[in-house]
Model the fold of this input.
Amino acid sequence: MATKKEQLTEVLRGIRAGSPEVFGAAVVSSEGFIIASVVPGDVDEDLVGGMAASLLGVGERISADLMQAPMEQVFVRSPRGYIIINAIDTTASLVVLVSKEAKLGLVFLELRRSISELAGAL
Done:
C-alpha cells in the first residue's frame, strides 16, 4: 500500500501530465512545509513552501475581511507565467507553477478535478 506522500505525489504527477504547461506542483501545509512535490531541480522547494504560506495568509485575511468567505484560490501572474495556490482543506494547499503559454481554463479544470483526489489522500 502506498504512503500518503506517494499518493499525493502520484496526483501531482497526474496534474503535470494532464496539463503540460504546469511545470511544477506541490502540496504545502498551512505552515509552509512541503508535504509532497514534483518541481524541477532548479526550483527551491523550501522557497515555494514559505512563499506559498505567506501568500495564503494574506489571501485568507483578504477573503475573510473583504468577502466574509474562506479563501479558495490565490492567483499571481508574472511575465514568465502564473503561480496558482488552491486550498485543499484547512491544513494544506496545492501550489502549481504554470508557463505563460497555458490555457488557464484547462489548468483550472485539471486543478478542480485534482483537489478532491488530494483531499482524499491527505
In short: The radius of gyration is 14 Å. Strands lie at 22-29, 34-38, 73-78, 81-87, 92-99.
